[in-house]
Specification:
By secondary structure, the protein is of the alpha+beta class. The chain has a single domain (6-134), classed as Heat Shock Protein 90, CATH 3.30.565.10. 39% of the residues lie in helices and 29% in strands. The protein is built from 4 helices and 5 strands; from the N terminus they run E-H-H-E-E-H-H-E-E. Strands 1-2-3-5-4 form a 5-stranded antiparallel sheet, with helices on one face. Strand 2 (62-73) and strand 3 (77-83) form a beta hairpin. Helix 1 packs antiparallel against helix 2 (37-58).
Length: 137
């Protein structure tokens, strides 16, 4: 039986207290739908970074603000989209930054996500991140 595309939406308050439970719920969905151990670890770390960015930068740790997440899983990849209500950031600056980007204050999460996922793209002026991890054989 061939696996079909499945998806699920997640909505969480934009504070750090809500982030852990939401991340665990998202990871449960990913695990239940066939991620291998290596994929799970990479996705977990990238998801943690993306959610932390949404909470800290997009919501300023304000539980009254909402973060919307969407996960789609098909036979070839896991796709995670996270959107926060913040103003975004200069996406072009991250596209031109090489491995030597200054990560003393900001940017470590973006570098880490890039190293773990097969594709990262941004929408809505940087207030949305799309993470894509190809599935193993």
């Amino acid at each position: 039986m061939e696996q079909q595309t499945i998806s699920r939406d997640f909505i969480l308050p934009g504070n750090s207290e809500s982030m852990v439970a939401a991340r665990e719920s998202m990871m449960d969905f990913i695990k239940e739908n066939g991620a291998n151990e290596g994929e799970e670890i990479d996705i977990f770390v990238a998801l943690q970074e993306a959610l932390a960015n949404a909470v800290v930068h997009g919501c300023q740790n304000d539980g009254a603000k909402i973060i919307r997440c969407w996960i789609e899983i098909d036979p070839s990849a896991f796709v995670i989209v996270i959107r926060d209500p913040g103003p975004g950031f200069d996406v072009a600056a991250t596209e031109t930054a090489g491995p030597s980007v200054n990560t003393t204050e900001h940017g470590r999460g973006i570098c880490l996500m890039r190293s773990l996922m097969n594709d990262i793209s941004y929408g809505h002026g940087g207030s949305e991140v799309r993470l894509r991890k190809l599935r193993g054989p």
